[in-house]
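User: Sequence in, structure out. Go.
Assistant: Echoing your sequence, followed by the structure tokens.
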Amino acid sequence: MIKHVFIVNVNANAKRTLNKVEEIQDICKSLDVNYEFFVTRSKEETMFIAKQFKDEFCVVYAVGGDGTVNTILNSIMGGQAYLGVVPFGSGNDVFRSLKDEDKTITECNVMKVNDLYCLNIFSVGLDAEICAAAEKAKKLGIPRNQIYEVGMLYTFFKHKNEPMFIDIDGVHFYDPRMSMVTVCNGRYYGNGYEIAPGADITSDNADVYMVAGLSKLTMPGFLKAVKNKDHEKHLTKATGRNVQVLTNEPVVANIDGEIVVDEEFNIDTAAGKINVVKNDRVLSLVRRLGDKS
């Protein structure tokens, strides 16, 4: 019997998540599932536990948000363990990018940004700054359903365009006032915005979106266009396997909810594969709990 390992990040909606731990355990007991449960309070603790199961034939479930998924992905990548996603975070965009897959187990493509694996989306510029501001808002106790909006408002006043050089499979792009670059393995980012409607999380190539020259006047219109899925006419789109993004000075980047600061990003959009479990009996019940929260 395959083992189901649940790693619960209590930093992702701590009160809500802890309230569901007992219910998830009751589901596992009622279905006679071989399972283990771990509650973690730091990224380091999550990585340490996940790595213990890397080479076992089991499913390691990330119970939390996109950052928790990224932490566990980087802990088990290259091993035998499968990845499971239980969306209890504030964004859950990785889950959104996976939920339309109709197979129980999907062999997903995995990108690598510098030394960090990435399952869904890498971004630098506007979106990454909003994500970073949302993380700050979360720590200040802002209600979960307002976190991203607070991040957008903060970024509206603080954002500035940057010179960026982008290389996509040897084709060069440059703009002295680049607002945002995203490299999309999955479809969703920013708490449910479908930035890459044509992206295929099983494909080796990724969609690259480049947005230049947004001002305080045009930024709200662009974000509204993204929300309405009418944004592709406002940007440059390309598809590629190897992507490099260079900036003049360190900038904020978002790698599946993990915030990093650097001035050079080398992205291999086909760094490996990982099996992601979806819609098995246990996970569907657990997800149903999450949907009701």
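User: And one key feature?
Assistant: The helical segments are 14-30, 43-52, 66-76, 93-98, 126-139, 147-158, 219-227, 281-292.
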